[in-house]
Amino acid sequence: MTKAALNRFLTEYADALNDGVGAIFVGAGVSMAAGYPSWSELLSDIAVELEVDSKNVHDLAALAQWSILENGGASRVRNVIRGEIGPDKPIPETVEIISRLPVRHIWTTNYDRLIERAFASISRPLNPISSPSDLALRVTPGAALLYKMHGSVDRLDDVVISTDDYELFRSKRGQYLPLFQAHLTSMSMLFIGISFTDPNVRHVLSLIRESFTDAPPEHFAIVRAPQKADFATEGEFAARNAQHKLWAKDLKRYGLLAVEVSDYAEIPALLRQIEKRIAARRIWVSGSWPLERGGSDSANIHALAEDIGRQIGETGRHLVTGAGLLVGSASLSGFLGALRQGGGWDLDRRLIARPFPQPLAGAQPNNEEWAALRHELARQAGIAIFIGGAKLAVDKLEVAQGVMQEYEIAKDAGVFLLPVGGAGGAAQKISDLLLGSEFSSSGQNAVRPTDKELQTLSDPGLLASKEGRHKLVSVVFEIIDRIARAT
After folding, report:
1. DSSP 415
2. Which residue intervals define the domain NAD(+) hydrolase ThsA Sir2/TIR-associating SLOG in the entry (predicted)?
3. E strand or H helix at 220, and its extent?
4. Which residue did the predictor score with more confidence, 234 or 107?
5. What confidence tens digit (pLDDT) does each residue in 258-307 have?
6. Which of 59, 164, 211, 257 is deepest in the core (most CB within 10 A)?
């Protein structure tokens, strides 16, 4: 793959997902990586029964059609699908990452249930739409939608498998087409695991070509190049490789920019880079300060947290918050103020809140529940800003252990750690722990500011004035911008 194609993919597709206009098309290669058979492998026994070699049959839908004609129905083909696709296989990392990405629309021609199982494993709602009649059903609030264009293994009476099914797609399953065309027009779609030998992909590309004859919208396709190990002879490899290169170039006719990999195992690394770029736009403001403390310190920490929240909103980033005492409400106030200036219409997308349930007076918090919420906040964020983090114990300020727990959880999750040490409390302790540490402070693997940046942010004198707080906010977002450029 060219570096230009890779950079465009990493930048533009991450932006599309972040802006809520990214979609995904999952091809057969993803299922094959989980251990499911290719089309030719799936129909190999049927080919033997028909006394043909499935490897030499390029129209595999025709092979299924011939079986249906010979057997007087589709039961034989459906039983093969049930036996080969029905059993659960380990969920590949590619699908696990897809389930975590902020994607709301997923298209596939695969029959298996990998995507459904991946979403269920993280308790994320998903509405599979495997039949045109499902399009009329009410969508679960907040659920992603999985459009199984060619049906599902759990509804084998309604799958696309034979020549007849492809030729009659428009009349039998044509309800998918306006929606698919709308997504191709208004969204950036990533095609994963597609191959020119897959009849499903040829069908989907024909739909794109039919919809956009002159200037198709541009999308991305991660494609696996043929490898020598796939073939018995050099000649077979050379012939298939030549076909692949021509096909990859031909994808431009459909508006697809090819991002080439040599093995499906490389796809998770690409998607992790996308995930990291998206996470860098999600900023967790962690911290607390005793409300009953009062005084200038409380006012200054409140003002700083509010300014940082406002800057998160004004720069188009997302706020991740557990609504901690004083710091959480202040950062939320600034963030909401920034969004209100633009109408606040994207609040549901840009605010990721997991408020901590507060116990009644005299009762203890549910530590297990709070720990789960902290892990969820860390999973959602790419950067954690620590402000304050203190509690009162017999009229004396102590480091808030809850904020220190958030630091440990964020560190373990690979979140970039950004303490404003001058605010005191846990933030100062975290800054001291990071200063001079072996944690990387530059490049793609950076997880903390440089020592010079930490020292600047640890100056308590800056917190006391509006000009000083402005400098702290400027340094914080200079660091955030630098990290964003490095991902």
Report:
1. P
2. 266-482
3. strand 219-224
4. 107
5. 888 887 788 999 999 999 889 889 999 999 998 777 678 899 999 999 99
6. 257
Closest by CA to 463, choosing from 425, 429, 411, 420, is 420
Residue 157: CB partners within 8 Å, gap ≥ 6?
78
Alpha-carbon distances, residue 219 vs 24, 251, 270 (angstroms): 10, 10, 16
Closest to 99 (Cα-Cα) out of 82, 75, 118: 118
Q: What is the pLDDT of residues 330-357, one digit of tens each?
A: 999 999 999 988 766 678 888 999 988 8
Tell me the β-bridge partners of 286. Answer: 386
Query: In angstroms, what is the C-alpha Rg of the chain?
Result: 27
Q: In what order do the strands lie in the sheet with 105-108?
A: 126-129, 144-148, 105-108, 22-26, 188-194, 219-224, 256-261
Per the listing, tokens 């290169």 go with 245
> Rounded to an integer, what distance in angstroms lies between the CA atom of residue 241 and that of residue 197?
12
CA dist 215 and 203 (Å) reads: 19
Q: What are the CA-CA distances from residue 334 to residues 37, 110, 182, 307, 308 (Å)? A: 53, 45, 36, 6, 7
Structural tokens at position 167? 């030729």
Distance separating alpha carbons of residues 81 and 64, to the nearest angstrom: 11
Closest CA relative to residue 155, chosen from 85, 223, 244: 85
The distance in angstroms from the start CA to the end CA of the chain is 19
Please report the pLDDT score of residue 55 as a whole number.
63
Question: From CA 26, how far away is CA 131, in angstroms rounded?
Answer: 17
Residue with more model confidence, 108 or 365: 108
SS3 190: strand
DSSP class of 12: I
Q: pLDDT value at position 475?
A: 97
Cα–Cα distance, 391 to 199 (Å, whole number): 63
The dihedral region occupied by 150, where left means phi > 0, alpha psi between -120 and 50, and beta the remainder, is alpha
